[in-house]
Design goal:
The protein has helices at residues 23-35, 64-69, 87-94, 96-107, 114-119, and strands at residues 2-8, 11-17, 50-55, 71-75, 82-86, 121-123. With 125 residues, the chain is α/β, with parallel strands linked by helices. The strands form two sheets. A four-stranded mixed sheet has the order 1-2-3-6. It has a single domain, classed as Ribosomal Protein L13p, Chain: A.
Amino acid sequence: MTITKTQKGDRTHYAIDASGQSLGRVASEAASRLLGKHSPQFMKNEVSEVEVTIENANALVMTEKRIKGKEYARYTGYPGGLRITPLARLIEKNGVRAAIEKAVDGMIPRNKLRRERMKRLTITD
């Protein structure tokens, strides 16, 4: 995994090359950078001044077992309202970008800073 660090004004920009890497490894590295865990000025109650770009998203390595076996579940709140979406259908419908966003989003803490942190993530093909 290649991580390139550049400075743009007051924000630090990280570019992660996803070619040949698994979904989880790329997502965990991106989530760690978005949270600011790598920085000595880390404060968990503030959004760090970073931007993360994941490049070559289509070159991710995902096994057939992972694509067929991974399922995302959500509940509507009504009886019988469990909705299950397989990873294969998510990729077919929305592309690899949606799978990466969902993986990184699951690694960010569920608080008021989550939306602002996710805005600083960009994914390119």
